[in-house]
Write a sequence for this structure.
């Protein structure tokens, strides 16, 4: 609870929360100009406009903490004079030409401060800093409009923690610079967009806004200066300028729409406003109240939306005729689907059909897909792409703690004393979540341990980075657990009160000695003891993991070992601790939550549970199948065996994302009838008999559930392009062609039905998710949600968690000729195969194609350099790809990102080997032989890629360097000097 203080604000006694003077004044309803202060960044202290008097002394109110009994003056001639001096300096750096400014949208903080302070003129004339405008394809920086507030620097250094931007305080006229004064495109900038988001004016701005927002802004540069001069001559005095520009800003409101949505890329679940003019996307504007991300974005969420208006969008149904597709009307396509579905039902029964839902689609659409399979067709053959990534993590958590979701929220990860990341390229796969870890480490002393076979950015930043042998994580995790128990470092009280099967589990650890772990994992005993000691010394430990753990033959068991370690050390049931299996897609959590699984209804209720099934049967008025259906992996096998004839797939490029792609594509060719529903003609869609044009997230209403178990609403930003339709409408129309008689008119009705049948989110409703409101499941009927997943008990017998013994499954072994281990995963710029991001010209310029990371040792041995083209061949297929030599990988381990569907696609060389408990493909267990195809070639990674940059870490803007300049005097001191001279 906040401490409350009695203070005097402008002569009145008031009670305020303990906070900065600026925020205390705001609590008291008193406005103070504050151009450099941003609530998400804290005090920066560069602009001086927030000067007030506290107990008779001039102070910056943003950085001064209120004390009991303080007397604060924010008005009066001396305070006003000091604030005017500060504002005059600001206006010397920023030219007011508001009416023709792209940023005149009601949110320019300089404009608003001038208006509120009733400033009519300035003493310090604006003059050019004599630097050219910096720009790239995402945003631009105009030094002559920059007030040097430092928000962009603070955001880059200490929120995003890319550490690219700084202010060159040593220049005659300071300005913002990239790295060591590099052009933007030759710097370490990752184009996350933080800088343009926090800029209070038009200095740092998205290029999508240039010339588009206003009625007088589409002026070429040659005409701009005369127009500005004319405007300034006509608008005599700043107050008339404010009046005219405010009128123009109001006119803009009539043609600019601002609509809240949720990002369609990774599982972090960033939400933000989308600014549109007709179908044109002007910019993405995150809001501080966004629960998962606040003001943060990554390059994809901020700038990766060009695909929505791509000319390659599917806009009409396609029907195969021979080896070609022809466009068709909806009625013909739906009738063909209905006919084939009915024929399969009649001749071979419901289990001859199967359904694959999408982790990109909404919760409501996932719900309808599984309802179509179960209630209309009569089969449990329904799955989604969590089978490819997260099912083992979910299994490990079901076994041990009862719920397959994150233990807390992103804030818990940020607040942990120790974060351990295992098999997760967090900075590139979950960029905004990674910023919270990087910030906590940099500013708050959070300790970070990374275990991975590749030295990615988080590994480079880690306090301890260990490099285990591929696939050996279960062994070192179990050895650390055993060592801690042997040292008496386990939480005996927690285990006694909250955990079952303790003695049996401890006995199962006998094999996992430090000696055994050192031999198997190639980690030293010292490294293992260091990890154990760090966990022991930390009050709270959070463990993050991803596909580097789950995509193995023993992925479920290794996930279980992570949870076992957390239980033994008491790192559940408290903030800042727990298990965080980071979800890859925007709605991979929700796809499973809403029942797109072969053995569970929505809310993870078993289809074999008679009581549960009866509840669904009563609501749906049908008899439902009792036996679990086929998962993705089993569907492919069933097609090859002739036991599955019809497949309906939406929003998944299964033909390229499933392992052993050649085998999967061969299965597609054996299907009697194949329906694919997508935004583009994907590699998978090319095998279909009917392709249905779906709408992406910006063209529909619904909800997503992020990695924190957080429900968030997305609102329709644009109308569906052409004749495309939201997936829920298409599924409804297919169901009704099969006599389902569904009457849903809006996704909210689907959510209401799902909540009625599902205790896990009984209290979820659209009313409770309005705007930026969100809920984390479980959600009680009264709307009470559960940010911290386990409080008093676990959802298992006796309310206790259970320790689950596991055994190590050795990775898949290959013949000696396959001597290269091929690691794989995501990269920052592209999402998976790039079906969406390659439609962005700007992103594609940065990373135009796939590449293979090769170690310096291997490069030297094989004669490889940047641009060398090689063929990797496994027993299952081959890929061709150009190389990049980097020390991020070691020895004969290479890294092949999954950012392509062409000849370099990783799954042409993966096997059908899978996790023994969930059938998740063992994507990470690949070995191949390498041959050089072209010794010389163009580097696949252009020099404008951020990886070539040279970041310059520092804390904040180094405002002390500004204060030390000969041309700087604190405005309060100037006022005191003037008053002293005037007596």
């Amino acid at each position: 609870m906040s401490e409350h203080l009695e203070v005097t604000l402008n002569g009145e006694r008031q009670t305020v929360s303990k906070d900065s003077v600026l925020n205390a004044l705001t609590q008291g309803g008193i406005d103070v100009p504050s151009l450099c202060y941003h609530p998400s960044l804290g005090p920066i202290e560069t602009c001086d406009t927030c000067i007030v008097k506290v107990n008779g002394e001039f102070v910056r109110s943003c950085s001064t903490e209120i004390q009991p009994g303080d007397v604060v003056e924010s008005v009066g001639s001396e305070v006003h004079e000091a604030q005017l001096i500060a504002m005059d300096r600001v206006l010397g750096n920023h030219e007011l030409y508001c009416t023709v400014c792209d940023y005149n949208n009601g949110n320019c903080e300089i404009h608003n401060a001038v208006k509120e302070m009733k400033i009519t003129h300035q003493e310090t004339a604006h003059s050019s800093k004599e630097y050219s405008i910096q720009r790239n394809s995402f945003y631009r920086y105009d030094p002559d409009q920059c007030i040097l507030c430092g928000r962009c620097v603070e955001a880059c250094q200490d929120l995003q923690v890319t550490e690219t931007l700084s202010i060159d305080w040593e220049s005659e006229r300071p300005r913002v610079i990239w790295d060591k004064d590099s052009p933007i495109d030759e710097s370490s900038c990752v184009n996350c967009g933080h800088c343009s988001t926090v800029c209070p004016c038009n200095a740092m701005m998205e290029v999508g806004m240039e010339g588009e927002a206003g009625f007088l802004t589409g002026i070429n540069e040659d005409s701009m200066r005369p127009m500005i001069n004319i405007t300034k001559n006509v608008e005599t005095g700043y107050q008339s300028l404010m009046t005219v520009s405010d009128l123009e800003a109001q006119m803009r409101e009539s043609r600019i729409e601002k609509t809240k949505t949720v990002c369609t890329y990774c599982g972090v679940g960033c939400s933000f406003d989308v600014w549109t003019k007709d179908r044109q996307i002007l910019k993405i504007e995150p809001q501080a109240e966004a629960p998962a991300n606040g003001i943060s974005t990554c390059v994809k969420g901020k700038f990766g939306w060009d695909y929505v208006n791509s000319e390659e969008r599917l806009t009409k149904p396609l029907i195969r005729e021979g080896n070609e597709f022809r466009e068709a009307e909806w009625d013909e396509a739906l009738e063909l689907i209905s006919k084939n579905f009915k024929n399969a039902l009649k001749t071979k029964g419901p289990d001859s059909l199967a359904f694959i839902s999408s982790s990109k689609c909404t919760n409501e659409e996932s719900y309808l897909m599984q309802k179509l399979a179960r209630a209309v067709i009569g089969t449990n053959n329904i799955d989604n792409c969590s089978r490819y990534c997260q099912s083992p993590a979910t299994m490990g958590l079901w076994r041990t703690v009862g719920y397959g979701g994150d233990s807390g929220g992103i804030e818990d990860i940020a607040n942990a004393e120790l974060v351990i990341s295992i098999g997760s390229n967090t900075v590139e796969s979950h960029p905004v979540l990674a910023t919270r870890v990087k910030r906590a480490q940099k500013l708050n002393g959070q300790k970070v341990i990374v275990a991975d076979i590749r030295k990615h950015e988080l590994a480079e930043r880690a306090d301890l980075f260990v490099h285990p042998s591929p696939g050996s994580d279960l062994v070192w995790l179990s050895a650390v657990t055993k060592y801690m128990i042997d040292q008496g470092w386990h939480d005996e009280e927690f285990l006694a009160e909250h955990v079952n099967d303790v003695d049996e589990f401890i006995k199962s650890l006998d094999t996992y000695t430090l000696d055994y772990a050192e031999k198997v994992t190639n980690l030293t005993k010292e490294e293992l003891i260091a990890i154990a000691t760090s966990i022991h010394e930390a009050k709270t430990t959070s463990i993050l993991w991803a596909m580097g753990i789950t995509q193995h033959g023993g992925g479920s068991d290794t996930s279980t070992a992570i949870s076992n370690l957390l239980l033994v050390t008491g790192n559940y049931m408290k903030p800042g601790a727990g298990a965080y299996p980071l979800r890859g897609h925007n709605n991979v959590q929700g796809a499973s939550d809403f029942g797109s699984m072969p053995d569970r209804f929505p809310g993870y209720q078993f289809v074999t549970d008679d009581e549960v099934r009866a509840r669904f049967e009563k609501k749906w008025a049908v008899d439902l199948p009792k036996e679990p259906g086929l998962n993705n992996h089993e569907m492919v096998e069933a097609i090859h065996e002739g036991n599955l004839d019809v497949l309906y797939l939406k929003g998944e490029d299964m033909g390229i994302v499933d392992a052993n792609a050649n085998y999967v594509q061969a299965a597609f060719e054996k299907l009697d009838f194949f329906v694919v529903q997508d935004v583009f003609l994907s590699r998978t869609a090319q095998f279909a008999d009917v392709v249905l044009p779906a709408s992406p997230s910006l063209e529909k209403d619904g909800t997503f559930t992020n990695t924190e178990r957080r429900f968030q609403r997305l609102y329709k930003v644009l109308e569906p392009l052409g004749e495309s339709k939201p997936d829920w409408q298409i599924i409804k129309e297919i169901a009704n062609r099969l006599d389902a008689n569904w009457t849903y008119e809006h996704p909210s009705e689907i959510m209401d039905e799902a909540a009625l049948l599902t205790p896990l989110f009984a209290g979820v409703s659209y009313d409770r998710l309005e705007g930026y409101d969100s809920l984390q499941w479980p959600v009680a009927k009264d709307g009470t949600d559960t940010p911290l997943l386990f409080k008093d008990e676990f959802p298992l017998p006796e309310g206790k968690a259970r320790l689950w013994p596991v055994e190590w499954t050795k990775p898949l072994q290959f013949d000696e000729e396959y001597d290269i281990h091929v690691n794989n995963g995501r990269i920052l710029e592209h999402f998976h195969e790039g079906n969406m991001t390659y439609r962005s010209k700007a992103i594609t310029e940065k990373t135009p194609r796939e590449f293979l990371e090769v170690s310096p040792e291997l490069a030297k041995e094989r004669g490889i350099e940047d641009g060398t083209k090689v063929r990797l061949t496994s027993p299952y297929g081959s890929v061709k790809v150009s190389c990049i030599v980097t020390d991020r990988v070691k020895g004969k381990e290479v890294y092949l990102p999954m950012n392509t569907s062409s000849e370099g696609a990783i799954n042409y060389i993966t096997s059908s080997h899978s996790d023994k408990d969930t059938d998740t493909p063992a994507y990470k267990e690949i070995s191949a032989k390498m041959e050089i195809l072209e010794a010389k070639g163009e580097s696949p990674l252009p020099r404008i890629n951020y990886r070539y940059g040279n970041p310059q870490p520092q804390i904040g803007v180094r405002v002390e360097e500004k204060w030390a300049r000969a041309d700087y005097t604190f405005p309060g001191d100037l006022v005191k000097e003037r008053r002293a001279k005037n007596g």
About this structure: The mean pLDDT is 95. The first helix runs from residue 21 to 27.
